[in-house]
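In the current project phase, we have settled on a layout for protein records. A sample record is reproduced below.
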Amino acid sequence: MQESKIKVIVGSTNPVKVNAVRRALSAVLESSSIECVGISAPSAVADQPMSAAETLLGAKNRVEYCQAQQDADYYVAIEGGVDQFEYGAATFAYVVINDGKRQSIGRSANLPLPHSIYQALLKGEELGPLIDKLFNTHNIKQKGGAIGLFTNGHASRESAYHQALILAMAPFLHGELY
């Protein structure tokens, strides 16, 4: 069987996001060769989305932008955000995958945030630089992220995205059921 080539446009140049998309799609589309191209796609939301709705809108906006730029088999965006839930503040990400005919939305697990960090976010700080200050790291959002630091390396930003992406691929893998 000949390997098919799949072109994927990712609405970010962040290597963590591009690698997560490449790994996840390579896993679920195992008989295909995946070419992932990251482009700078505006979210048209705040740099630090502070609600689930704003976070999802940012991911949708990035996918729409990618679709307007070039042809691909899939367009993918990942948007990280924060929200205050009844059980406390948490950070998470939405993923949006679109193949031009169908769109699927997924979401990562929540990482609980300390109250002090959430309060700083409410004052306008962004999570990545805030975590860099707290843990004395540099550009953690392009590495393991807050997830990696708060879990002592047992999970990472990429691993959280990876699972959300795989789950969001279900409608593409079983289109007849969706």
In short: The longest strand covers residues 74-85. The longest helix spans residues 52-69. The CA atoms of residues 1 and 117 lie 52 Å apart. The beta strands are 4-10, 32-38, 74-85, 88-98, 103-107, 111-112.
